[in-house]
Amino acid sequence: FCVTMNSFTRITALLLTLLNTTNGFHIVLAGGTGNVGRELSSKLVEDGHDVTILCRNAFLAGAPSRVSSDFGWLGKSFLEKYPGVKLRDWDGGDLLDIVGQDWIGWQDDTLSKADCVVNLCGGFTQQREMATERLVRESLRCNPTALQITVAPKDDELRMISNVAVESKMKRLKLCEDLVSQNCVNYENMRLQANRLEEECDNIKQVIYARLS
Predict the structure, then answer these.
(1) How far, in Å, CA of 170 to CA of 5, rounded?
(2) How high does pLDDT run on average in the chain?
(3) What is the pTM of this model?
(4) Which has the minimum average pLDDT: 19-33, 86-100, 138-152?
(5) Distance of alpha carbon 176 from alpha carbon 194, whole angstroms
(6) How far is CA 146 from the centre of its chain?
(7) What's the mean pLDDT in 154-167?
(8) SS3 readout for the chain
């Protein structure tokens, strides 16, 4: 009987997936209605976990077709395919971006039961700082031991995907990472390559499993 290295790797990955499925983590993705959130949430749900995505407008994010480019969108068909993915309105630190009152109470609904909070909030503006500060402050209040993961592009990647005011954006990303590392006891700051979506989502997933197992 012979097991090749590739077969061993696949078997190991399968066993890890089965183990994690049994445990059933609850994972919160803040700002998870973009490409990374779509890929990561589907992978996590396929492994048997529950995912709650914090978004500015759950109604628009779950609509059959995209209504506005100002809001993230996953779509009705995606949510039907992955029923383990739930949408929840939140304020993201900026009340000016909120439509309606559905965001009230998001902290106790989601953070209090989270095993892991992944910050995928996009953009490189002050909004990102506000969202990170909001996540950290409310997590410390509701669930201070939850794993906190920040996700951002590497510095060289940032220069390629957003080449205006790069130094200012790099400082802002570092500030967000510092907010987490200086206040949270259980955290991981990840810098990823933007053009390797599936691979990097697998990396995020494996960090979650390694830190929570």
Answers:
(1) 40
(2) 87
(3) 0.86
(4) 86-100
(5) 18
(6) 14
(7) 87
(8) CCCCHHHHHHHHHHHHHHHHHHHCCEEEEECCCCHHHHHHHHHHHHCCCEEEEEECCHHHHCCCCCCCCCCCCCCHHHHHHCCCEEEEECCCCCHHHCCCCCCCCHHHHHHHHCCEEEECCCCCCHHHHHHHHHHHHHHHHHCCCCEEEEEEECHHHHHHHCCCCHHHHHHHHHHHHHHHHCCCCCEEEEEECCCCHHHHHHHHHHHHHHHHC
pLDDT at residue 33 is higher than 80: yes
**CA–CA distance, 94 with 35 (Å, rounded to integer):** 22
CA–CA distance, 97 with 88 (Å, rounded to integer): 14
**The pair of three-digit structure tokens given for residue 92, joined into one six-digit string:** 């993201």
The owner of tokens 């749900």 is 45
Q: Is 110 exposed, middle or buried (0-12, 13-18, 19+ CB in 10 A)?
A: buried
